[in-house]
């Protein structure tokens, strides 16, 4: 179907968003065409504002609006424990649990030689500098439990352990509500390895 030029441009831009295919882009575009002009303008303003207001925290590389992100600026956080995550959305996931009270370091990716991503493309150097400058007792590696995340975790552990800092890895295993019969071998194996006394 041929669309007017402005609608075609909107559809193209929407399809560039992660997880948005042609049908989803069409649904969003049609919604934008039916809402009040003020609603569409608020959305456009919010997008422009966030691009101007948000930057990376110079300490942990999370998203920040002030000089530091909210976690780094919070004096109640335990700065002796750093949780290393791949992306800011991973930091948000850990924060939702409300169990961790330390600070973070965001790598902005994971090591993937096949994709041409090595430690040099990540915020690894900044992490090592931070470990040398701050009084850190433990680094919790919370990279994703996949090949890239495991490769990154092993690399970081080998890099950090000689510094005399405790390195831990988040446990992985079965999700709550899951059935053993549907678990793959790796997940079930990890769940057994990470078992704890009751």
How would you characterize the overall build of this protein?
This protein is α/β, with parallel strands linked by helices. The protein has two domains: 5-53, Orthogonal Bundle (Helicase, Ruva Protein, domain 3); 76-169, Dna Topoisomerase Vi A Subunit, Chain: A, domain 2 (3-Layer(aba) Sandwich), CATH 3.40.1360. 44% of the residues lie in helices and 13% in strands. The protein contains eight helices and six strands, in the order H-H-H-E-E-H-E-H-E-H-E-H-E-H. It has helices at 5-15, 22-34, 37-53, 70-73, 88-97, 124-133, 147-160, 185-193; strands at residues 55-56, 63-64, 78-85, 102-106, 138-141, 166-169. The strands form two sheets. The chain has a four-stranded parallel β-sheet. Strands 1-2 form a two-stranded antiparallel ribbon. Strand 1 (55-56) and strand 2 form a beta hairpin. Helix 1 (5-15) packs across helix 2. It is globular. The chain starts with a helix and ends in a 5-residue tail after the last helix.
What is the radius of gyration? 21 Å
Distance between the termini: 62 Å
Instruction: Give the rounded overall mean pLDDT.
Output: 92
Report the major sheet. 4 strands, parallel
> What spatial form do the alpha-carbon principal axes imply?
globular
């Amino acid at each position: 179907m041929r669309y007017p030029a402005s609608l075609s441009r909107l559809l193209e831009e929407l399809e560039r968003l992660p997880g948005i295919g042609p049908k989803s882009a069409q649904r969003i575009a049609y919604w934008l065409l039916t809402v009040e002009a003020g609603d569409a303008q608020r959305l456009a303003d919010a997008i422009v504002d966030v691009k101007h207001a948000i930057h990376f925290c110079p300490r942990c590389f999370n998203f920040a609006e002030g000089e530091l992100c909210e976690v780094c600026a919070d004096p109640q956080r335990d700065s002796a424990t750093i949780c290393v995550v791949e992306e800011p959305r991973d930091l948000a996931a850990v924060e939702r649990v409300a169990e961790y009270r330390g600070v973070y370091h965001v790598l902005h990716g994971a090591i993937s030689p096949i994709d041409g991503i090595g430690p040099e493309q990540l915020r690894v150097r900044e992490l090592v500098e931070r470990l040398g400058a701050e009084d850190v007792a433990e680094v919790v590696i919370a990279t994703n439990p996949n090949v890239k995340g495991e490769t990154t975790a092993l690399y970081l552990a080998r890099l950090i352990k000689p510094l005399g800092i405790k390195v831990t890895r988040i446990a992985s295993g079965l999700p709550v509500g899951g059935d053993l019969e549907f678990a793959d071998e790796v997940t079930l194996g990890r769940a057994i390895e990470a078992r704890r006394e009751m």
